[in-house]
Amino acid sequence: MSDYDAAVVGSGPNGLVAAVLLARAGRRVLLVEQADAFGGGLRSAELTLPGRVHDLCATVMAMTALSPAFRELGLGVEPACPEIPAAHPLDDRPAVLVHRDPGETAERLGPDAGAWRATVGATASGGLPLLDMLLSPLGVPGAGPGRFRPHLSAPLRAALFGRYGMLPATTLARTRFRTVEGRAVLAGMAAHSIVDLRLPMTAGYGLMLAATAHLTGWPLVRGGSQRLADALVAELLRLGGEAVTGHRVTTVKELDADTIVLDAAPWQFAADFPAGYVRRLRAFRRGPGVFKLDWALDGPVPWRDPAVARAGTVHVGGTLEEVALSEAEMFAGRHSPRPFVLLVQPYAADPTRGGHTLWGYCHVPNGSAVDMTEAVEAQIERFAPGFRDRVLARHAMTTADLERRNPNYAGGDIAGGLSTLGQFLKRPVWSLNPWRTPLPNVFLCSSSTPPGAGVHGMGGWHAARLALAADSRRSG
């Protein structure tokens, strides 16, 4: 492979963003993907029955519309927004519904209305300036090429957010919220972090995610997440780039390009890096894994509270105490008998996927080989009696299955590394430019770099800008 200004290895959302931005800057770009389809975490496939479209990993695009990277790209895929972004069913009372309107959500929380407005509502009111800064945590005004320059109001908004966001989710829930409903819904949001909810900064994950439900409504891509990947590849080709599937890159030495961007877990290329950098990489901790299930159903999930059927995302786990216990068990290396289950009902927003398909996963220890199907379905059945009777077919993926489909998901870790406070900025090493490697023309852009997991493309956005700046210095 030769005659390219830049080569991008891996076609997840970060790699795709990097490839397109480099091509838009006039570089001749080669995109290389080892799988037989582009997209990484954006891939879709018929996992259960013919004609049923399932997303292999990412489905809900909470961050895509808000990300500076995708705002700059301006790609026109069609969003599908559910009537209700998220729901959290409970045993003995109506489900908590997170509406697009923060006021309506707060009103339905009764005694916790004020707490919701002061925490989630305040985060949402920070709008794009706050979210831009949280998605570019190392970006400070005047910091040079490749860094994000936030709105002048962003530091103040971030400081106000940090007042609650740096707390453990359990602490914020118990000190600010009084009701079972308010505490439970915050726990469900925070559990997306795949971290013990008693640890610092888990409240911040919950607040930011809940705020995005108010800002974007948690859209899906109509027809499947693969369409977003396909749109990015099409844009790259339109700009004169090339894209190859089915080729595994094992060393950067085989890529004859001025610039190399790796949308990959950095340890996959450890043999290319100096020994000192590799030692620092080994200190980077991988996160827990997930056990994923996809179902083909003969109708909608029969929720005990019918309102849950209108939600795109459903957090299944019960009370704050139950969700926190499940995540603590997982974090300690054990399998919870009543796991927190993250479900997505694509049919609530998108009728184009061939019928009633359901997507879900629970968190498990990294590398787990345990089949959690029974435990997951028991949790769903708990809040939706008769669910199993609706199942026409199911498809399960253990942590090993996920890693086989995507080597970045080492041990089933879909977040690219542990998402604790210590590793929020240390991704994968402590550095003001973590997207840069010791090799002058090699950059990292996977979710193992800031700001971490999610379909936001910001790792690719930063890496591409740093690469372009380095290229300009070489040329000058």
Task: Kindly summarize this structure in a few lines.
With 476 residues, this protein is of the alpha/beta class. It is built from 16 helices and 16 strands. The chain has a domain at 4-77 and 221-284 and 416-475: 3-Layer(bba) Sandwich (FAD/NAD(P)-binding domain).
Report on this structure.
This protein is of the alpha/beta class and 476 residues long. The protein has a domain at 4-77 and 221-284 and 416-475: FAD/NAD(P)-binding domain (3-Layer(bba) Sandwich), CATH 3.50.50.60. Helix content is 35%, strand content 15%. The protein has 16 helices and 16 strands. It has helices at residues 13-24, 68-73, 102-108, 113-125, 127-135, 154-165, 169-176, 180-190, 202-216, 226-238, 275-282, 320-331, 373-383, 399-405, 422-425, 458-475, and strands at residues 4-9, 29-32, 44-45, 54-55, 79-80, 84-88, 96-98, 220-221, 242-244, 257-262, 289-297, 311-316, 341-344, 356-364, 391-397, 442-444. It has a seven-stranded mixed sheet with strand order 7-6-12-13-14-11-15, with helices on both faces. A five-stranded parallel sheet has the order 9-2-1-10-16, covered by helices on one side. Strand 6 and strand 7 (96-98) form a beta hairpin. Helix 1 (13-24) runs parallel beside helix 10 (226-238), helix 1 packs parallel to helix 16 (458-475) and helix 7 (169-176) packs across helix 9 (202-216). The longest helix has 18 residues, at 458-475. The protein is globular. It starts with a strand and ends with a helix. The model is unreliable at 140-148 (pLDDT under 50).
